[in-house]
Amino acid sequence: MSWFTSRKRRARPDDAAAAGSAAARCLEAAREVGALLTRARREVWEQVSHVIRLSESEVMAAARAVMTVAEETKVQIEHSRSVLLGLEDVRKGGISEVVREQSLMLREHVADMSARVRTQDEQAHDALAQVAAIGGLARQIAKMASEAQLLALNARIESARLAGQSQGFNVVAVEMMRLSNEVAAANQRVAQVAERLSTILPALAHGAGELRGRVDTFAHQASQQLAEMDRKVIELHSEVTEVVRGADEALGAVVRHSQEALSHLQYQDVAAQRLRRVDGCLHELQVGAAQALGDEETARAITAPSALAQLGPGELHGGDEPAPNAGEVLLF
Amino acid sequence: VTKRILVVDDSACVRQQVGLTLKQAGYEVVEAIDGADGLRKLLGGDVAMAICDVNMPHLDGLQMLEAAQRGGSSVPIVMLTTEGQPAMIERARRAGARGWIIKPFNAALLVAAVRKLAG
Fold first, then answer.
1. Helix (H) or strand (E) segment spanning residue A30
2. How far is A294 from chain B (nearest CA, A)?
């Protein structure tokens, strides 16, 4: 037996009074705790009400604003996209085809012009050869006219020698002389024309050749310009495709961000439900404290929490299995 | 044909957020303000699927789910709630729920679930 137990003293009246006083202080403290719990619950409910008000008005307004922005952005991007796709259609079915058709027509036209110039060039050379041939013939005719004149002169001499006996022969000689002179005059005119042609036709041939060179140069330049236009059209197509892709990405980002913004707004509702749960816990604590103090009347008078916050046995802690995370989707 | 999705939640804020998300995904949305309203619209209307809160006045989500099963409805119902207790999830699964989504929901996952169940 220890010293402490051997020296156990009898209880005195002062001790009972002290115990009673301590119990009274405990009871008072418990009541203060109860009052604190009541104030805490009131505060919680004020917060709940505030959150609910936010949920029902400001959050909804915010959600509407977010969606309005998203919808307007969507409309603008869709419009831009349709415009750009319209350009793309023009490229596919319009500009490109027109450029191609014009290119083909121009090339055909240039080829036709080139062929015509070539033909004219050949004809000029041919005409030059014909003029040379005419010159040769004129010289032959001049020689023949000269011989005919000589023959007519001899005929007149012979006619004079046989004077009076060959009057008819003299007439023939005179006519031959006249005809020979006319042929010589006509031949001289032909020779003059041939000479003039022989000076004009080389100039004409030179002009045709120069024209042909210009047409070829033009055809070459036109071909280069058409190739450049084709390249520009391809570049435009590439840029339009890039812009359309950018517009699609921007639209996707707007939709994604607006959905994320809406997801964040849900926390107001989640917070309200969590606060209701806190109130449920405080209610249990308050009732338990009153019952522990034997104050059944107070326990009954404590305001019950919202029906939404009442939890079944074990539901507060969720049992042994881990609860799923926020946002998680379980499909059965 | 645009499919109609029934959204049952006592919070107008949540109804609007779910509704806008689904409308953006191309669905038509019908709203119900509690379990009783939801059950009436589920049994009486042409809906492809229902998304239902759990904690609601008058008739909670699980009660509505059980009543819909008793009423012979074959419309897929997915619960959308802050609750995550496995016992509650199991109760919903046994009552015929096709899914359970924890708030706050992820829009992309919600739409994916709706596409899987409603088409």
1. helix A13-53
2. 33
CB contact under 8 A, A327 and B105: yes
Measured in whole angstroms, the distance separating CA B116 from the mean position of its chain's CA atoms is 14
CB contacts of A264 in chain B (<8 Å) are: 104
Query: Distances in Å between the alpha carbon of A250 and those of A4, A74, A83, A171, B24?
Result: 85, 9, 16, 114, 16
Chain segment A272-290, per-residue pLDDT in tens: 777 777 777 778 887 887 7
Does residue B51 register a pLDDT over 90?
yes
| Cα separation, A231 vs A214, whole angstroms | 26
Distance between CA B100 and CA B102 in Å, rounded?
7
pLDDT, tens only, A116-154: 777 877 877 787 788 788 878 878 888 887 888 888 788
Record: contact A324-B100, CB cut-off 8 A: yes
Q: Which residues of A touch B14 (CB under 8 A)?
A: 266, 269
Q: Do B21 and A259 touch (CB under 8 A)?
A: yes
Q: Name B50's bridge partners.
A: B6, B77
Q: Is the ipTM reported for this complex over the cut 0.90?
A: no
The residue with tokens 């005409």 is: A127
Q: Tell me the whole-structure pTM to 2 decimals.
A: 0.53
Contact of B31 with B5, CB cutoff 8 Å = no
Chain A residues at the B interface, defined by Cβ less than 8 Å, are 55-56, 59-60, 63-64, 67, 70, 255, 258-260, 262-270, 272-274, 307-308, 314-315, 318-319, 321-332
CB B52 within 8 A of CB B61: yes
The continuous run of DSSP H or E covering A155 comes out as helix A96-161
Task: Classify residue A154 as exposed, middle or buried by CB count within 10 Å of its CB (0-12, 13-18, 19+).
Answer: exposed
Top-confidence residue, A13 or B82: B82
Q: For B107, which of A55, A259, A270 is closest by C-beta distance?
A: A259
Pairs of residues, one from chain A and one from chain B, whose beta carbons lie less than 8 Å apart: 120
Please tell me whether residue A169 adopts helix, strand or coil conformation: helix
Q: Contacts of residue A60 in chain B, CB cutoff 8 Å?
A: 12-13, 16
* Rounded-to-integer distance, Cα A129 and Cα A148, Å: 29
Q: A329 vs B82: CB contact, 8 Å cut-off?
A: no
On chain B, the residues whose CB falls within 8 A of the CB of A254 are: none
Residue B12 near residue B22, CB atoms below 8 Å: no
